[in-house]
Design a protein that fits this description.
By secondary structure, this protein is an alpha+beta fold. Helix content is 37%, strand content 13%. The termini are far apart.
Length: 121
Amino acid sequence: MGNISRQPLNGSRSALPATSLEEFVDRFRILRTLQSDFAKWLAPVPSVTGMHLAATLRSRSVKFERELAGRALAADVGFDRLSVYCTTRPRAGIVLGYGAIAESNIDEGLRRLRHCFPVRP
């Protein structure tokens, strides 16, 4: 993404700059994937703006969050652990930043992340 500007997906003019429209499309695609392919393990945190998406682990386990982060790192997938942002009671989860990720790498990153989760929750 970054400074790359493209025409809106349908070729028409949009009220949003092309990069904003593409970021919205990426956000929606990631959110849809989290809600379908990761539903057993993750509950997306509601948000409407930003260059990241957060999701809590249904297990609520910070230990599992750390293990997942290790497996993701080994699979060359990066995310922040949600618990490190909590000042009181830790909430286990993931924070996916996508603003600096090439659109063409998003699906592959989500596929790799999915393989970091166990078959069963």
